[in-house]
Amino acid sequence: MYGTAWKKDATTSLVELAVQTGFKAIDTANQLIHYQEALVGDALLTLQKKGVAREHLFLQTKFTPTNGQDHRTPYDATANLTTQVTQSMDSSLKHLHTDYVDSYVLHGPYSRGGLGEEDWEVWKAIEALYRSGKTKMIGISNVTATQLNQLCTKAVTKPMVVQNRCYASTGWDKEVRQICDANHVVYQGFSLLTANIHIMNSPVVQNIAKRLGCTAAQVIFRFASQIGMLPLTGTSNTQHMKEDLESDKLQLTPQELGQVETISL
Ligand SMILES: NC(=O)c1ccc[n+]([C@@H]2O[C@H](COP(=O)([O-])OP(=O)(O)OC[C@H]3O[C@@H](n4cnc5c(N)ncnc54)[C@H](OP(=O)(O)O)[C@@H]3O)[C@@H](O)[C@H]2O)c1
Predict the structure, then answer these.
(1) Strand order in the sheet with 2-3
(2) Does the C-beta of 193 come closer than 6 Å to ligand 1?
(3) Which of 139, 175, 189, 193 is most buried when burial is the number of CB atoms within 10 A of its CB?
C-alpha cells in the first residue's frame, strides 16, 4: 500500500507515479498537518483520464480527531463527534472525487489504556458510514492490544483493518497481530523501515539480502508480507517504488522469518 503522508505539494505527482509503477492501494487521511488528501484526489482525476478507473484502486482514508488536527479541521470542531465523523467523510469523498472509499480508519483512539465514551461514539458513527455504503471496510489505527480486544469483543461491526507503527522490539507488534489473526482483521504495518533502521543494518537482514540478491528494505517488506502483514511504504523514489513492489517475488525461508521476527526479543 502506498502511503501519502508528508508528501506536501508532491502528493499529486507521487500518487500518479505510484499507481503507474504498479501500486493499487493508496493510504491518506483528512488531516492537513500530515496529508494532502485533496491532492490525492487531483492525482486520481488525472489517472482516470489515463484509463485507471476508480474501481481498480483501493482507497483508504481516515477520520482524525481534533487532538490530531490543527485549526484546519475538515469538520465543525464544535459539533458533536457523530457530526464530525459524518462531515469529515463527506469532505473526504469530495476530495477524492468518489462516492465511496474502500476503507475508513479511525486515526487513533481518544483514550489511553482502554476505549472511552468518545471512542465508542466515533466508532458507532463509523459503523453507520459502513452501513450506508460510503465505506467498504472500517478500521482503527495506533491501537493497543487491550483497545483492539475491546473493539473486537464489544463492537456491533468489528474492525476489518488495523494500521499500526511496527517496531521489531515488540516482535513486530506481535500481540496486536495475533488479535488481528484471530478476528480476521487485516494488519497494515507502517514505518517498517524508519522505525527499524538498526534492524536493516543487522547481520541477519544483511545476510538474507545477500542470499536473495536484494536490498535490506526489500527483506523487511517481504518479511512483513510473509508473516501476514500488508506493508505500507512511504517512498518518494521511483526506483524504491519498483523495489518495494518487486519484494513480493522474494521468498524468505521459515528459518529466516523466525530469525527476523525475534531479532529484538
Ligand atoms: N496511521 C498513522 O498514524 C500513520 C503514521 C505514519 C505513517 N502512516 C502511513 O504509512 C505510510 C508510510 O509511512 P513511513 O513513511 O513512515 O514508512 P516507511 O516506508 O517506513 O518510510 C519511508 C522511508 O523509507 C524509505 N524507503 C522506502 N522504500 C525504500 C527502499 N526500497 N529502499 C530504501 N529506502 C526506502 C523512504 O526513502 P525514499 O523516499 O528515498 O525511498 C523514506 O525515507 C505513510 O505515508 C502513511 O500513509 C500512518
Answers:
(1) 2-3, 25-27, 58-63, 103-106, 138-141, 161-165, 186-190, 229-231
(2) yes
(3) 189
